[in-house]
Amino acid sequence: IIFRCDDNSGGLTSYMALVGTTPAVTIQQDVKLTATKKLYLDGGSGTYLVESSNDVLDIYAGGTNMLRIEESGTDYVQVFDNTKFVVGTGKDLQIYHDGSNNYIDSITSDQDLFIRVNDGGSQINAIQIDASDNGSVFMKNDNQFLYIGAGNDIAIGHNGTNSIFNNNTGTLQI
Question: Under DSSP, is residue 70 helix (H, G, I), strand (E, B) or coil?
Answer without folding.
Answer: strand
